[in-house]
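Figure 3 (text version): structure tokens given as input.
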């Protein structure tokens, strides 16, 4: 995977730069962190809350390649500078023919994130059920 990502053009972004914003329509790109740190934020009550911090070797924004729904979070550079590589849908489809292992790795990571979110949702449901006295588990 590393060789494939290194072949993508990188861009340097300064601290505080927003890569994409929660609620914005996707730009058909996902991103790889080549260096630095990127935060993933969700708004709650009008305030940004950091949900995840990504560093070198991480990727994000892959849902934009799969669907055309608004972005679910805001991605912002946290370190003094970050170097990111961008991959669009066309590049991913070309790469799929040459390196199915790379696409499998992306899929594996995306599913892992989805399962972690599902587990968290289940824990919240159980906690709410306990607080309200109902024992519904979905």
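Below: residues designed for each position.
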């Amino acid at each position: 995977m590393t060789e494939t990502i290194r072949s993508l053009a990188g861009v340097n972004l300064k601290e505080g730069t927003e890569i994409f914003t929660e609620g914005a329509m996707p730009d058909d790109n996902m991103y790889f962190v080549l260096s630095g740190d990127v935060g993933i934020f969700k708004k709650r009550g009008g305030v940004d809350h950091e949900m995840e911090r990504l560093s070198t070797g991480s990727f994000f924004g892959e849902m934009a390649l799969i669907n055309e729904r608004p972005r679910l979070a805001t991605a912002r550079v946290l370190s003094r500078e970050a170097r990111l590589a961008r991959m669009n849908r066309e590049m991913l489809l070309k790469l799929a023919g040459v390196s199915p292992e790379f696409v499998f790795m992306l899929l594996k990571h995306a599913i892992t994130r989805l399962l972690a979110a599902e587990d968290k949702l289940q824990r919240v449901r159980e906690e709410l059920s306990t607080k309200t006295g109902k024992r519904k588990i979905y």
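The chain has one domain: 2-132.
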